[in-house]
Design brief:
three-stranded mixed beta sheet, single chain, flat, alpha+beta
Length: about 45
């Protein structure tokens, strides 16, 4: 589904279930990896 919607990230706690870290333009990352490396800047 994420490739149809053109998602930037697939955030999952099961990264060990994926043999790839990227599908087309979608990065497959853990929540911790996303939070530490990719989270958007928020100025709320």
């Amino acid at each position: 589904m994420c490739w149809f919607l053109v998602a930037n990230f697939l955030i999952t706690g099961n990264v060990n279930d994926f043999v790839i870290s990227k599908y087309k333009e979608t990065l497959i990352v853990s929540p911790v990896d996303y939070w530490e490396n990719f989270k958007p800047n928020s100025d709320f």
